[in-house]
Amino acid sequence: MKKAIFGLMAAAMVITASCSKDNGVTPGGGGSGGTTPPVVPPVNAKSYLELAKETRSFVTSNLLTSSFSYRANTTTLSNSCFEWYNVSQIYADAALAAAGDASVLPYMNNTFKFMEGFWDKADPRGGYFASVNLNGTGAGGDKYIDDNGLTGMVYLEAYEITTGADKAAYLAKARACADWLINSGMWDGTYGGGFWWNTAKPDKPTQSNGVAMQLFAKLYIITGETIYRDWAVKTNDWLRAVMYDSASGLYIWKIDGPGAGTKHYEKFTYDNAVMLEADILLGKAMNDASYLAKAQAIGNAMNAVLWNAQYKGYIFNTDPTQTRINPAWCGWGSQGMIRLYEQDKDEKWLTYARNNIDALNKATRNADSHAYYFFAAFNGSNRAPEIEGVDQAWMQRVQAMMAKYEK
Fold it and tell me: Where are the transmembrane segments (predicted)?
């Protein structure tokens, strides 16, 4: 997943530094902590379900191929096909199906079949490569822990809403993803443990370990197999010991470099949304309510540190040069808040989730095409030209999730 972040984000940083028109936006300024923020008026009179369907319509018309793969974007990478972009669309379709639109199920299941082209069939351990051609040939690139971990989680959500052979296939492949993580050699004693980001082993990020922890915990809940529980606990122990910043109540970006390692203390919205959900799942796996309290504490810290009170939305990260927002990585914050609401029924989490979606719709959505721009300032200026498939997927997903709780 971070091939996009640290390739595309690097470009975004250059663009932001050179072209920003909204330097007055201060990330995290005036965070409201655990209090309920005021609800801002919606972008328009459309329901979140209607907005999710409009996003899906754009994807079908502009990104979907005859192979049931998805183009990476509509501009510079229109002939590229990325692993985590494709599974993010499956995730989006699973949410839309759960919200009542069964028309997306054939797309979801056919893309799942297409995903087999990413799988490393030459290695008995398997694992998904980062990219393929639009027709499913030519798999290559590194293998990413976060891509494979997220993919397993996507398949488990698809498992929950399907039946018969489809249901069994999703569970089997989710287990294959987890088994690759365990046997990949990507966990070692450097920095006391933890998964490397990818097979090139440049660094160990929070989010790679967080999605792996999610997958292990959820597989234990479903299968009862203790190997998954043990790996969930092992991953959590390392994250808490090495990556948790007690001063902010949030998880840091990554650790890298020689010796004991250099810690990068930037805080990302989606890293912490990942960890919030990981704690919820581990609490269920261990039947331990203290993990829900930890998830709630992360949620409150996110809303103190990563929330822009002026525009009522989540920032990308705490780097003060990063004044623009992104639909996927900022939108992940809404999923985290919805997950908290599903556990404790505290309406404040839904308010943050709703406001964040509305802020992203105002800043990054093209009202005519219904597409989302890769980056934009909170006020809607300084929009990047790229229309990334993963951004469409995540906005479809969080709006479909939010539709279940519309009043």
Answer: none
192-316-152-70 Cα dihedral, nearest 10 degrees = -140
Dist CA 402 CA 334 (whole Å): 9
324: enclosing H helix or E strand? strand 324-325
Distances (CA, A) of 332 to 262, 282, 390: 26, 19, 12
CB 342, CB 31: distance < 8 Å:
no
Q: d(Cα 302, Cα 252) in Å, to the nearest integer? A: 12
Question: pLDDT tens across 19-71, in order?
Answer: 221 222 233 333 334 444 544 444 557 999 999 999 999 999 999 999 999 99
Distance CA 272, CA 332 (A): 9
Which of helix, strand or coil describes residue 58? Answer: helix
pTM of the model: 0.91
Q: d(Cα 285, Cα 281) in Å, to the nearest integer?
A: 6
Exposed / middle / buried, residue 301 (Cβ in 10 Å: 0-12, 13-18, 19+): buried
Label the pairing between strands 324-325 and 140-143: unpaired
For helices 48-62 and 389-403, the axis angle rounded to 10 degrees is 150
How far, rounded to the nearest angstrom, does the alpha carbon of residue 227 sit from its chain's CA centroid? 25
Contact 298, 352 (CB under 8 A): no
> Domain-by-domain residue ranges, the chain?
80-186+196-201
Token pair for 151: 């993919």
Give the position of tokens 């829900």: 292
Q: What is the mean pLDDT of the chain?
A: 91
For residues 337 and 401, is the Cβ–Cβ distance under 8 A?
no
Q: In this structure, are residues 75 and 138 in contact, taking their beta carbons and an 8 Å threshold?
A: no
